[in-house]
Amino acid sequence: MADPNGYHDDIGDTFVDGFDDDGFPGDRAPRQPAAAPVLVPPAGGGIAARAMAARRSNAPDYLEGLNPEQRKAVETIEGPVLVLAGAGTGKTRVLTTRIAHILATGSAYPSQILAVTFTNKAAREMKERIAHFIGGNVEGMAWLGTFHSICVKILRRHAELVGLKSSFSIIDTDDQLRLIKQIIQAEGIDDKRWTPKAFAALLDGWKNRALTPKEISEGESRAFAGGLGRKLYEEYQDRLSILNACDFGDLLLHVITLFKTNPDVLKDYQRKFRFMLVDEYQDTNIAQYLWLRLLAQGNPNVCCVGDDDQSIYGWRGAEVDNILRFEHDFRGAVVIRLERNYRSTSHILASASHLIAHNEGRLGKTLFTDFEDPEDEKVAVASCWDSEEEARSIGDEIEALQRHGHKLNDIAILVRASFQMREFEDRFVTLGLNYRVIGGPRFYERMEIRDAMAYFRCVVQPADDLAFERIVNTPKRGLGDATLKLVHELARAERIPLIQAANQLCQTEELKPKARSALKSVLDHFERWRRDLEHTKHTEMAEIILDESGYTEMWRKDRSAEAPGRLDNLKELIRSMDQFESMAGFLEHVSLVMDRDSNDINDAVSIMTLHSAKGLEFDTVFLPGWEEGLFPHQRALDESGRAGLEEERRLAYVGVTRAKKRAKIWFASNRRIHGSWQSTIPSRFLDELPIEHVEIVEQASNYGGYGGGGYGRGGYGASRFDRSEPFQNSSYSTPGWQRAQKAKAAHEAITGRSSDFRSAGTRRQGPMTIEGELVAKSVSDMPSAYSVGERVFHIKFGYGAIVAIEGNKLTIDFEKTGQKKVIDSFVEKH
DNA sequence: ATAAATGTTCTTTTT
DNA sequence: GAACATTTAT
Questions:
Q1: pLDDT digit string (tens) for A550-579?
Q2: Does A329 participate in catalysis according to the annotation?
Q3: Is A91 labelled a binding residue?
Q4: Per residue in A318-339, pLDDT tens?
Q5: Are the CB atoms for A652 and A685 separated by under 8 Å?
Q6: Catalytic residue of the set A92, A257, A402, A430
């Protein structure tokens, strides 16, 4: 390919060009002729020379304003680099500037840079910021994305090498659970004792560690259903491959397998990616680590950025060890610490640092700031009677801030668990305070959206069992368990997708006439939609599908309160499809990007979990619910002991460091857990804050005034916050408790249940997605195991003699019911 | 086959 | 207390 800038030969990369243009749908990376040299025009001479020149002659302006450490992190582009970036130290800036630097020095084409993030949001942000550097167009950065999206891209190209078709579909956790459940039931295992969820957790653990069924240990195999772990894992994978589908873990795993078994392919990618960057390295799991290591073999230009103190995803397999071992794994690594904080006041920094210092096994960083203002507020710690009062008080404070001219956009409430959000939502609704929930139940998880998507999936991906199951009988068309069971049996026996099995069944008299015609009609619809999709715009087809299937009709007739909203959501769904070229493209997008871009520009308080707050910052941050059992969460303690506690502490650290100017921590003495009220103890983390940077706030509005007593009953001794709290409360019958109950009842009467549209979509479980072309033909090539004249037994029709054979369909003359067409797997020889 | 009633379990965080 | 799942009744 012609190179307009004339430095193509310097890079010696003919491979890339052919590679990027060999055209996968959705992978058209329009080559940007002048992407790289916007900032530094290409000149003759080697890359290094140019890079050095760039550095000497007054640094390009993108380097300006970086502190020495940041600058070093940006400019050290050769060799392995670990950037330990504390909270608020300009991590993202370093990452994006580094990419800009690589491009500006002409060291690589955009398409030769692999940049990995964990969330789609982070990827999007990085793209935006790089676009800013290189003049608007980042189309060339084809390999900037999440681990998962990059893996999909690679897999679509080489799917056959791992036994998939390139059109494979991606199932989400919901689909995964259903599939597991089917397998467990098919094995005849008691799914009460051995729940699908438990198996999903095991499976997740294996995949996070890149273990295939053969590689899991005996012990782990035995850990489920008395030794069936491995078998179930094998069957699960088997089923997935029939369905031509992957789960999230498979995306990584299959690429690893691909690389291991096809060294030439790996080599191509190793050569292709001249520079690799990984964001949030502390969150990588073993599979991701192995993935990266494979790619980094023979190319040391790996830059990992992370903060061991912000590792909060241990529960989903993240290995802090990856970051702790970096120097060891990548020989000659340069480690750069970013410790200068540009975000928070010194009180906030000191509090966070003091807190996190209680953890062992850190790489150790000390954040500092140059800015100190005597006006800065200390970190506030306040107490309240119960969670309702907590919401009320925080609401009041927010209104006060608002009166003083603060923007709601600069305020956030960060909770440990999402159930805490509800209380705030209820309160803010009554106050008329704008809020937005970030990361809550998502658009694509709503029932109506999932249903609609299931229809689309059935059309586009005819092997998508999970989608099929979801909507065969939605709206109701008389296809119940009995019918479904038959379809399942056939599908399992013949190892074919459900839709195909259903098709076969319709050609026989196995089903009751009513069910048969209902099923036939659905399948015919699928057929027709599939055909029409070829010449009709996909958004139009989407509408047609929803109408003709009776799905919209179903909601129109529904008189419940949510129905209109659901219809709106469906409209929005179709509208959002417009940005995609095809229905298949849309489905892929949704399976990887479950978040909807909320582009509301309104001023609103943000409510979110601590986990989803990572990477964000706000002037004012409220941190409610600092109570033992909730935060640190009991389950983290029970399941992971000390490690769990440390992770919770890191979570607290993340929370506090989100605040730029004000951090306000709350705890309640009573909280409803499992529906019943329990008195609670202040979190131990409160005692780990440095008292000189903290201000204890007395609540004027407390129900206070009941004598001594206090908390401190708990297991770990008295807290210094015990004394600051004026109530006693170990019984459920104190006046305060009763009052709280009454207030609550009154509140509910006024607000009338929660109006909450978030919950609307979450109630029903959805099916999932699978896809592929028909795996088997409807008439089997295999010679039949039966012969004409043979006497057979059918469980429903009894004994009969075979009259004719057509593939796997037998025409049998039954003694009682006469001639019927049935499928051979439903009869046995006699 | 469906709707209503009853019982059961759980509530962390997410690509 | 709520969302589920299963059982029972129609």
A1: 888 888 887 776 777 788 888 888 888 888
A2: no
A3: yes
A4: 888 888 888 888 888 999 999 9
A5: yes
A6: A92
